[in-house]
Amino acid sequence: MDSSLVSPFPSSPSSPSRALPPTAPLLPETSRAAAAAAGSRQRDVAAEAVEWQEQQQQEDDEGCARVVVADSGAERSGARSAPRPWSRAELPTLSPRCRIPGAGHSGSEPGQRPGSPRDPAPEPAPSHLEPAACPHHPRAVEAWLDDNPDFARSYFVRKATREMINVWFEERVRPVVSVDRTSSSRGVGGGALGHAGATGAGGAVDGCRQSPPRKISASEFDRPLRPLLMEDPSDGSLTFVLGTEAAAPRSWSSPRPHAEASDVPGRAASGCVMAMATSVSAHGVGSSRSVSGERERFLELVKDIACRLDVVTLCHRILLHVNQVLTADRCSLFIVREDSSQERCLVSTLFDVSLGSTPEQARTSWLRLAWGKGIVGYVAATGNGVNIPNAYQDPRFNVEVDLMTGYKTQSVLCLPIKDNKGEIVGVAQAINKKGNNEGKFTEKDEREFGAYLAFCGIVLHNAQLYEDSLLENRRNQVLLELASLVCEEQSSLEELVGRIIDIILSFMPCQRCAVFIADKDSPNIFSRVFHKSLEVPGVAENTSQSESQSHPVSFIYAEFVMKMLTLLNIPDVHCDNRFNLPVEERGNYRTKSLLCAPIQNRKKNEVIGVCQLVNKLEEGAGEVRPFNRNDEQFVEAFAIFCGMAIRNTRMYEAVARAVAKQTVTLEVLSYHAIAHEDECAKLQTTSVPSAQSLNLLDFTFSDFGMAEELTAVGSLRMLLDLSLLQTFSIPNEVACRWILSVRKNYRRNIAYHNWRHAFNTGQCMFTVLVTGQAQNVLTPLEMLCLIIAALSHDLDHRGFNNSYIKNRSDHPLATLYGHSMLEHHHFDQCLMLLNSPGNEMLSSLSVQEYRSAVGMIEHAILSTDLATYCKNRGEFFSLVKDGTFNLEDQHHRKLLRAMMMTACDVSAITKPWPVQQKIAELVASEFFDQGDRERQELHVEPTDMMNREKRDKIPTIQVGFIDGICLPLYEALSCVFPACAPLLSGCQSNRQNWEKLTTRCDGQQDPGAELNDDGLK
C-alpha cells in the first residue's frame, strides 16, 4: 500500500479491516478509499467503537506503532514493528511521535493518566504536527464524539461508573464565579417564574450570590438544638458539661457529621441521575434530545437551590420550581418541628406559594398541623406520598383549611422530603394541576416531583444544619454576654437587671420580660420587680415596681414557680385551669403564652428570684406564639447566669453598705479616739521640765512613781529636745493633741502592753538617740519616724500575742492580715491617728518625704514582731561582726533602725533588778490571762510561759529569753554605738539574778525551750 502513514488499527485473519473514525479525510487517497469501502458495509459507528474497545489488552514489549512522515513523500520500505491495538485504559492516548505542544498528554505511558508520577520527562514534538494529523489525538477524538452524540450518550449510559457520575454532578452543581449566560437559557423557562429571579444557569448563580442568609432570630428555635443544661447525677445540680450521649438530639433531626454531610450530594445525585439516564434509554434515541432538555432543566433547578443556605428563601425557591415542573397552581412546604411538649408537628414555613410570589408574601400566614392528621400529616407519619384527584372525596382532607384561606382545593400531590438517612424533614404539597389531564397530577409528575425532592431533602437538611449552627452561635454569644455582665456590672442591682432584660429581649422577642427579686427579710414574697414591656412593637418602656396589682397574672405564676421551684411553660394561660385568673385591664395587652423559671443561688440552694417571659412574638408578623423547648433550655441557662449576677451584685451592695457603716463607725471612733480639747489646752499651757529633771536621758529610767500627766509631758520634751517640731514645722497644738490621742488609744485594762510600756519604749529610743549618740548618724526624718513608731508600736494591744490569733482562725485580725497580725493592726491605728484632723504630724512634709516617712514607720513597727527580728538579725550580726556594716548603705541603715526598735521594745530586761522584777510580774500576769483564755475558748493546754500552774518556771524562761534574744542584740548594738553599752551591762546583770533564781526551781529545762514570739520582756 502506497502510503506514508501506517494505520494504528490492527488487522488479523479473523476480522476484516476496521473503518477509521471520521478523521480519515486527512489520510492519503488510498487509505480514504479503503475507509470508504469499509463504510459501504453500513457498519454502525457505535459498534465500531465497541470493537475498538474490545481489542487486545496486553501491551507489546516492542512499543507502540510509530507514525512516520516522509518529507519527500517517498514510500518507506523495510520491516516494521507490528502495530499494537489500543487498550481501554489507553483511549485516548497519543503515540510517542504524536505529541503536540500544549495537548496535556506529552510523555504519558500507555494506559497512564497524564500528570501521574510515572510520567517521563516531556519529549519535544515536531512543530509541524497538528491534532488533525493524529486520528487518535484527544482533540480529534473529542471532535468525533461531538459529531456523534448518539454514540456518546449510549456509551455513557452503558459504561459510566458511579464515581464518574458523582464527579460530573459535583462539578455541575458547584457555584461558579462567572457564568456564560448564553450557553443555556432554557433551564427553568420564562413566564412568571422569570419574575422570581431565575432565568437559566446565570440567574440561578446570581440568585445565590445576591441572596445572603438572612438574620437568625430566636423565633425560629422550633427545631431542637443541643441541650444547654443537664442534671448532674452526683448532686442533682444543673451543669453545662454534657456527656456525649446526653448531648445528642433526637434521631429524627440529629445533625450528621461533616464528613458524612459532604458525601451526601454525590450519593443522592448518583441515584437520581442514573434514574434519569435510565429514563432516557427507555425513551429511545429518537426522543433523547427532548429528554436531554428536561434533564438539563432539572439540573438547572438543582443548581439554583444547591447553593442556598437560608431555609425560608430555599423553601420558596423549591416551591417555585415545583410550580414550574408540575404546572401546579399553588404549592406549600411543611417543615418538621417540635413543640413545647416535645411532640413532632408540621409547620408551614411557606404556604400557598404561586408563581410570582415573594418569600415575604408567603410568610404572612402560617399553619401548624398535627402529626398524622390530614393529608400532610399522613404523608409525614407514614412516609408515603399520595396523589389525590379529588381532595373533597378523600376523608383525610381537612376542609377547614379551604374555609380559612378561601381557596378551592381539587387535586393534591403530596410527597415527603427525606434527608440522607431517610428521616422525614418536611412535606411538599402541590395543589390543582393546571393544563391538560383534567386537572390531575400524572405518574410523570410523581416521578419528577420525587426526583426533585430527593435533592431538596439533602439541601434542606444542610440549610437547617447551617441555621442550627447560627442559632447555636447566637445563643452562645448571648450567654457569653451574660457571663461578661456577671463580671462587669456589680455596682447596682437596677442597672444589672435592666441590662439582663435588654440582652434577653434582643435574643428572644416577647411582649414583656420581668425579673422578680425575692427577699426573705421582706414582708412580701417579692421585694422588687424589674420589667420591660413591649406594649407596641419597637417601643420599649422601662419601669420597676414591687406591686402585684399591675400584672396580677404574671405575679400569680411567679409566686407559683417561687414555691414549687420548677420551670413553667404555658401556651395559653387562659386555658390553664389551675388558677382563677383575674381579668386583665391594660388596653390591648393580654397574657397568653408564658415562660417562667426560678433563679436560684446554687451554693446555698435557695431561690433568689424568678425570671418570666410573656407572649413570645413571631418576628415580622407580630403574632403571639407559644414558647418551645429551646426557649426553655435558654431560659434555664439564662437563670443560672442571672442568679450569679444577682447574687454577686447583692453581695457587692451588702459590702458597700458595710463599708459605709464602717466609715461612719470610724468617724465616731475617731471622734472618741482623739483627745479632748480641754486636755490639749491643758498640756499646751503646762510647763515642760527638762529631760534631765525627768531622768529621760538615763538608760536606767523607770516610770514607776511618775504621774500619768508627766508621761505626756515627757513625750513632748523628747520631741522638743530632738528639735523635731522646729525642723518639720509641727505646731505645738498638733504635737500635744497627737500625744494625748496616742495615750488614749492604748487599752487601760491590759497589764503590760499599755501606754506605760509605749512611753518606756519611746524613752529608751530617745536615750539611744541622745545619750547613745545615734542622732549623729541618723537624719531628722529618721529620728521623727522612730519616735512616732516607738510611742505607737503597740496601739490597741488586746493582751494576747500572734499565736493566739493564729489559733483563732475566725478572729478578724487573722482575716485582715496574713502574718504579724498585731503589728499590722498597730500600724493601721498609728496611721489612722496621723491622718485624723488635728493630729497631722506629717502634714508639712512633701509628697516624697511623706511616702518615705510612712514606709519607715511601717517598717519600724513591723520590726517589733520577734519573728521578723529573728529573720533579720543574722544579717545584721554578720555585718557588725565582719566590720562591713556601712551607714552609707540604705539597706544597712534599714537593718539598724529595725534592731533599734527591738532593742527599745525589750529594754525592760536592762532595767535595774527591782524594776525588772516588777515588769516581769506584769508580763507574767498578761501571759497567764492569755493561757486561761486558750484553755477555756480553744480547749488547748497553754505553754509553760502562759500556764498559770507553772509559775515557778519564770526564772528559767527569762534566762532563755535573755540568752536567745537580748544579749546578742545588745552586743551588736554596742559595737555600732559604744555609748549604748549600759543596755548590755544591765541585761547581763539581770541574767545573773534570774539564773540564781533557777536553782530554787525543780526540773530545770533547756533555756531556749520555752521561747515564743514575745518571751518575757
TrEMBL record:
Residues 1-21, 47-56 have a biased composition (Low complexity). Its cofactor is Zn(2+); Mg(2+); a divalent metal cation. Zn(2+) 1 binds at residues 757, 793-794, 905. The active site is at residue 753. InterPro entries: GAF (IPR003018), GAF-like_dom_sf (IPR029016), HD/PDEase_dom (IPR003607), PDEase (IPR023088), PDEase_catalytic_dom (IPR002073), PDEase_catalytic_dom_sf (IPR036971), PDEase_CS (IPR023174). AMP binds at residues 753-757, 794, 905, 958. Pathway: Purine metabolism; 3',5'-cyclic GMP degradation; GMP from 3',5'-cyclic GMP: step 1/1. Zn(2+) 2 binds at residue 794. Residues 675-1001 form the PDEase domain. Residues 194-205 have a biased composition (Gly residues). Its EC number is 3.1.4.-. The keyword Manganese does not apply. It catalyses: 3',5'-cyclic GMP + H2O = GMP + H(+). SMART domains: GAF (SM00065), HDc (SM00471). PROSITE patterns: PDEASE_I_1, PDEASE_I_2. The keyword Acyltransferase does not apply. Binds 2 divalent metal cations per subunit. Site 1 may preferentially bind zinc ions, while site 2 has a preference for magnesium and/or manganese ions. Plays a role in signal transduction by regulating the intracellular concentration of cyclic nucleotides. This phosphodiesterase catalyzes the specific hydrolysis of cGMP to 5'-GMP. Specifically regulates nitric-oxide-generated cGMP. Belongs to the cyclic nucleotide phosphodiesterase family. This is Phosphodiesterase. The gene is PDE5A.
